[in-house]
Sequence to fold (114 residues):
Amino acid sequence: MTGIMSKPASQKTALAALAGIALLLIAVGCGGGDKQVTGLVLEAVERNLAEIETLRLQDDDGRVWEFSTQGPVGISAAHLRQHQLAGEKVVVRYREADGRLIAFDVKDADGSGG
Fold:
């Protein structure tokens, strides 16, 4: 009798697990989560000494990206202006929120830090 009772419960558990996996695959497939772009700095506007208000860069395809921030991103506007003058690339990790690109991490593309 125990085998008969547990079979429907195990089927429900298996279906729930499959549904969870399907939802996860859909979320990943739709591009949810963090993204990144590498490019040349066109403009860096500081909010204060530690934070950037806006950052514009151009990727290798010529597309111009504009980011805002919600706190420190690991690099100063002054350092980004040095990249701009030297023609050195940076890597921006960002999220999309309310139609805006929000940078949360900016690093030197050569990996030397910020």
Remarks:
- The first strand starts at residue 35 and ends at 46.
